[in-house]
Amino acid sequence: AQSVTQLDSQVPVFEEAPVELRCNYSSSVSVYLFWYVQYPNQGLQLLLKYLSGSTLVESINGFEAEFNKSQTSFHLRKPSVHISDTAEYFCAVRAPQNKFYFGSGTKLNVKP
Amino acid sequence: KAGVTQTPRYLIKTRGQQVTLSCSPISGHRSVSWYQQTPGQGLQFLFEYFSETQRNKGNFPGRFSGRQFSNSRSEMNVSTLELGDSALYLCASSQGAEAYEQYFGPGTRLTVT
DSSP per residue over B66-110, as a string? Predict the structure, then answer.
């Protein structure tokens, strides 16, 4: 069975500092990996995805994530965060038969 | 293209009642999934429908049911509501039989009193 672990439930960080949100997954088969962001009282928005090809994927707002097959990780990083990045971030895995598994979420709190 | 829409956005019900939530997927998307999100349990998968057939099902009691119509719109129903059913219910749509990503609606906030 697949599972997704987000190691940090909350990450406080100052504005313009770098941040890494960690995600590990367990799977015996190939999977597709995603990061979603959720702002208060809203649904989840797709931030970035890894399907195949380059293991480093980027979003339009400066986030990037690297797929590491040997460590079964898909950590999310941003070199310089903004106040507007304050939100909850979810890592997700798509396994065969179109089954999606989500991590428990990491609340990123960017402080001025 | 319009995004995934969910109605109503907010709902207050009392214990024992039943409720129906609606989801309209992105045009052309044929798969609809439902999730329950609570602070304690996080995002939990309820079920997925594709071409009017339930394809996957999560670990929820039979009080939770759903269906999908020929236009891909989906409804989920919860009967005999319990206080613990208070949650944000999220609908997500994806394209085709093998979906690579899901697109979420804004959710329906259900409060059971």
Answer: EEE-TTS-EEEEE-S--GGG-EEEEEEEESSSS-S--EE---EEE
Residue B90's nearest CA partner among A28, A110, A21, A92 is A92
Among B42, B45, B50, select the one facing A100 at the smallest CB separation: B45
Distance from the Cα of A78 to chain B's closest Cα (Å) equals 22
User: Three-state SS for A108?
Assistant: strand
| Residue A96, φ and ψ in degrees, nearest 5 | -55, 160
Q: Å from A6 to nearest chain B CA?
A: 12
Q: What are phi and psi of B83, to 5 degrees?
A: -55, -35
User: pLDDT tens-digit profile of B2-41?
Assistant: 899 999 999 999 999 999 999 999 999 999 999 999 988 8
Cα–Cα distance measured from residue B12 to residue B68, given in angstroms and rounded to the nearest whole number: 24
CB–CB contact A94 B99 (8 Å) = yes
Query: Does A111 lie at the interface with B, CB-CB under 8 angstroms?
Result: no
The H-or-E segment that residue A46 falls in is strand A44-50
Are A100 and B105 an interchain contact pair (Cβ–Cβ within 8 Å)? no
CA atoms of B17 and B82, how far apart (whole Å):
9
| Residue B55 amino acid letter | R
CB proximity B97 to A under 8 Å: yes
User: pLDDT, tens digit, for every residue of A67-97?
Assistant: 998 889 999 999 999 999 999 999 999 887 7
| Cβ atoms of B39 and A40 closer than 8 Å | no
